[in-house]
Structure formats: structure tokens, C-alpha cells
Amino acid sequence: MGNRTVSASTESPTAYGGVSDVPILLHARDEDEQVRSHPCILLVENSPTTLRLLSKPLSQRYTLLSANDGIDAWNLLQTHPEIELVITDILMPHLSGHELLVKIRASDDAQIRNLPVIVIAGAEDKDARDLAFHNGANDFVTKPIDSTELQARVRVHHKLARTIHQLELSRRQLTEQATTDPLTRLKNRRAFFQEGRQSLALSERSRTHLSVMLLDIDHFKRINDTYGHQAGDRVLTTIAELLGEMGRTVDTVARVGGEEFAIILPDTGREGAAVLAERIRAAVEQSVFDTGTEPVSLTVSIGVATFGTDSADSMDTLLKVADRRLYVAKKEGRNRICTRDQGDSTTWP
Q: Which of 45, 84, 259, 278 is the catalytic position?
């Protein structure tokens, strides 16, 4: 077959034998830029009088959405991720403030679950306040509403929520940096073993197969020596994209060495892993890679190991078996896959 460009088509999730995996607006919003520049607060109140008392001191600094009861409020929270704080009364029809609080704190969406919630309560209603605290309220404003106090409490909790959000964002970014290969944006070796241990434990519990594929670019040093390291980096990122496109969403693709890539294939036996390995091998062979100066052709060699079939009881030993078979594929001429230790490397013509 003739060469093709390196854009590989996405495979079916089951291609190689695995399991597939109406708000009321109170604040004027004539300008889109104005909406973006004002933090958004959700007011949950069925009394028009109280709603006006809440909105008047807040409307100059915040974009306000309102709901008549807890059900409307919950629907707004699902469709308006820009909401940064909730102010809710307790006594409402259909879904009370207490029930709304419980739903917010139990949400699967972390952004909703962590929203600051200020509850409106009567000055003498200690039991309602205690229950609201128990259900996850952050603070209270009492009736009759004092506009200065309301603004101060909203300002404090909004600022705290933004600080917490920034800290959480920084934490996630640090975690991603620690587990991501900076060049290819694939998982790195550390993340590969983290994911691998979890996948292997699941495979043991469910008594299903799990395969590991180790891939090495043949004669990669020639690319760096002939065209420079930038060209080599371009090849590596292109291979990474191809591997990501050909795998399933349940697979874990990682760069585990200079020109070595590994893939964890849950619920995939030796035959299914061999099918994918051959598709990858053929796709690379039929592709043309851009070096920045001229197009080049490349090949890869692949070793495969399977938990439940091969003698391996950890991700480390599985990878060692795959590495041993990768060596066999290299020794027998490269541009081939190997799924057993002796005499089984092939180009699958």
C-alpha cells in the first residue's frame, strides 16, 4: 500500500475485543461584557418583597438570578455554571431551603457541591439555623434584612469561595504536571504505574484479562541525528496523537521512555491486544511524518503481555514481559509485533 498522511482514523470502542466503554434576571444585562465582569449570585426566595430587599443592595456589584423555590433553584444550578454563591430562604413550597442545601452538598458536580450558601432565617428561629448548619450552610442573614450586613457577608463568602477555587485549580494543575509528559501530553511513567495498579486490581477482582503493549520507534536516533531534536520531538508528538486516536477511552496511553510508549488495555486478552498492536504497526508504516525539512517514513516494534495468560502478577512484571517481547521483535528484524517469548514475532502481512 502507498504512504498516507499521519492522521489516523478513530477506532470503534469495541474494535479489539474490549468493553466499550427560565431564570428571572434582576440585574440589568444590556451588555455581554457587563455580565462577564459581575460575579453571579442565585437568590432563592418566593416572597417578592424579600426578593426586592435582597436584590437592591447587591444589584450594583453582582449579576443576580432568582428562583421561586428549591426546584427552580436546582434547575438553575444545573444550567448556569457561572453561579458563584447562593442565598436561600428556608420556608418555600415544593422544595425547602433545607432540602435544597442537602441536594447541593450531595451533588456529583464539585462546582455545585462547593458553592457557598447563605441562608435567610428569622432572628429567633434557632432550630432552623442549627439544621441549616447541619445541612451545610455557610452563613445566615436574619430578617429584617440589613443591607450593610448582607453585602458584607456576601463579599466575605464570595472572596473565600474564589480563593478556595483558585487553590483547588492550582492543586489540579500540579497533579496534572506530576503525571503528564510535558512534550506529548500523554500520561508519564509515574502515572502509567498508578493507572496500571488500579486497572490490575480491577482485573483481579472481576477475573478479566488485561493486556499491556510496549511500543518503540525503530531507529529513532537517526531522526535526531539527521534532522535534529526538534524533528524528533515532532515525530514523538505525532505518534502520541496516533496512539490516542486508535485506542479506546478506557485505555491508558503513556510515554514511558525516550521513544517508548505503553498502553494499558483493560478487559483485553492476548488476541485482542495483538489486533490493536498490528493496526498501530500498520498505521505507522503507512504514514508519512513531517520532520520540518522533508517527510520521512517510520516503523515501530511492539511487545505485548497479558495478565491472566502470562506469568505476571504486577504491572511492573507485566511491563517487563512486554519489554522482553519488544526485544524479540527488534532482534527478529523490527517493524513487527511479538505476543509470546519465543518465535512469535510477525509483521502480520
A: 259
